[in-house]
Automatic annotation (TrEMBL):
Organism listed in the record: Hallella faecis
Upper lineage: Bacteria, Pseudomonadati, Bacteroidota, Bacteroidia, Bacteroidales
Keywords, ordered alphabetically: Membrane, Transmembrane, Transmembrane helix
Chain ranges passing through the membrane: 39-60, 72-93, 136-155
UniProt name for this protein: Uncharacterized protein
Length: 164
């Protein structure tokens, strides 16, 4: 989906081109690859997690006037970002491992540089952490966007952001 590809391309500098090509598109006809269109899956999961954390803050189960301030909102934003960081690292790593087993897919990702080496040789821990960091920022953006309409829905949220 072009929407998620555009958003994740903003943070493409956190990881290398091999990782980007691996998570960005369907690179093989092999339907057994885990998360065949993984950037779309990661984006949807990130959006759902951000929405669920925002709903937990504004509606249920944390719907309390004593926890409706800027500080509480920042705590929930950081919680959402940390969860999405873990999702980015985990899903990026699982995607590389699933592509690594498919020799044709490795050749497509590495192009002219492919000489039989494993895809995991080209993507180190820094690239998984970089993809997780990009997912952290995307999750933060999604949480902020999800918070805006939920703020006006909740009467207890009069001291939270976006409502003064």
């Amino acid at each position: 989906m072009a929407f998620f590809e555009t958003i994740y391309s903003w943070f493409h500098n956190f990881y290398n081109d091999v990782m980007w090509d691996t998570v960005r598109e369907i690179i093989s006809d092999n339907d057994e690859l885990l998360f065949a269109d993984s950037l779309y899956v990661v984006g949807i999961v990130t959006l759902v997690v951000s929405l669920l954390v925002a709903v937990a803050f504004y509606i249920w189960p944390i719907n309390s006037p004593s926890f409706k301030s800027w500080k509480a909102w920042l705590v929930m934003l950081l919680l959402s970002m940390l969860i999405n960081f873990g999702i980015g690292v985990g899903m990026g790593y699982s995607r590389v491992l699933s592509v690594n087993d498919d020799e044709e897919a490795c050749a497509l990702v590495l192009g002219d540089d492919y000489d039989g080496q494993a895809l995991t040789d080209e993507t180190g821990i820094n690239n998984y952490l970089g993809f997780g960091l990009s997912n952290l920022f995307v999750g933060g953006i999604f949480f902020i966007i999800c918070s805006i309409p939920l703020t006006f829905y909740n009467g207890n949220a009069r001291f939270s952001p976006f409502r003064k």
